[in-house]
Amino acid sequence: MEALLVDELPTGEEWQYEPKWDGFRCLAFRDGSKIDLMSKAGKPLARYFPDVVATIGSLGARRFVVDGEIVVPDGDTLSFDELLLRIHPAASRVKKLAEEHPAAFVAFDLLVDARGKSLVEKPFAERREALERWYATAVPDGAPVWLSPAARSMTVVKRWFRSVGGGLDGVVAKRLDLPYESGERAMRKMKQMRTADCIVGGFRYASNAKIVGSLLLGLYDDDGLLNHVGFCSNMKAAEREKLTPKLEKLIRKPGFTGQAPGGPSRWSTERSAQWEPLAPKLVVEVQYDHFSGGRFRHGTSFQRWRPDKDPSQCTMEQVAQEGRSALKLL
Q1: Are 231 and 301 in contact (CB under 8 A)?
Q2: Residues 157, 206: one domain?
Q3: Looking at residue 267, what is its pLDDT?
Q4: 270: pLDDT strictly greater than 60
C-alpha cells in the first residue's frame, strides 16, 4: 500500500498519523527458516541486508508478514547514504558495510500474524492492535526492530515536527477503517519542506543548448569555505535564456573553495565535471525536503532571487536542524 503526496494532512477521527521514515520500504516475510525481504517495487532486498535477515530470523514468531522500513542508524541519526551503499553487487562489500553500520527495521503494519492468518482484509485499526501484540511477544529486548510511533492527534504531530525538526522526513496519515490496499495510494504523506538561501557558485549548460541547465548551490562552512551542496533546475525556458548571459559575465574561478562538483561518487556521471565556476555574488532561495551527507538529497525547487541577502550569510547554520534525529521518537 502506497501514499499520495499532499500539501496538508487530512484530519478527523478516522485518521492515524506516523512518522515518515528515512529508509527503504520493505515487506519482511518469515515462514520458519525461510526469510525474504521485498522492496516496494517487488525487488528482493535480502542479499543487501543480511543483518536484517538475521534479525528477522531471531524473532520469537516463526511465521508472519510485516510491513515496515529498513533504516541505518549512524550514531544518533539515520544515514540514508549508508543505506544506499548497501545496494552493491559484491557480497563481501555488503558484509563489511553490515558489520560497520548494522541496519534496523521499523515495523508499522502486520499483514500475516504469528498463526499464519492473513490480516489484509481487516481494517487498519485492527491490524495496528495486532502489530502491537506481535511486537510485544515476538521482539526481544534490544533487538534492532522498532515499533513505529502512532498518534491520532494533530497536536502530537506538531510536537514531532517541533522536537525533531529536519530529522523528521515527514508524516504519513492512514485511514483506520481501510483494509490493506496493495498497490493503491490509500495513505497520505506530507513531507517536511524547508527553505535555505544559497550562493550560486556555478552552473551547468543544458545538454542540448548553450543556455543554463542547472544552478549549482553552495553554503559556507565554519572555515569560510564555500561547499557545493546541490543543484536547482526548475526554471522556465524563457528564464534560462535571460539568465544565461548574466551568469556568463560572472564566470570566474574557483567558484567553490571547499567541496566542489564533479568529485568521485556513486552518483557521478560524465557531465558531473562539466560546470562553469562563478564569483560568489548571486543568492537564491530554494525549497528542499532533506539535507544529509553535506548536500541536499534531491534537486531543490527554485523560490526566488535574494538580492537583499549578503552572500556571507549563506552558511551551513541554516541546515543545522538536520543534525537532529527522528530516532528520538522511538
Answers
A1: no
A2: no
A3: 41
A4: no
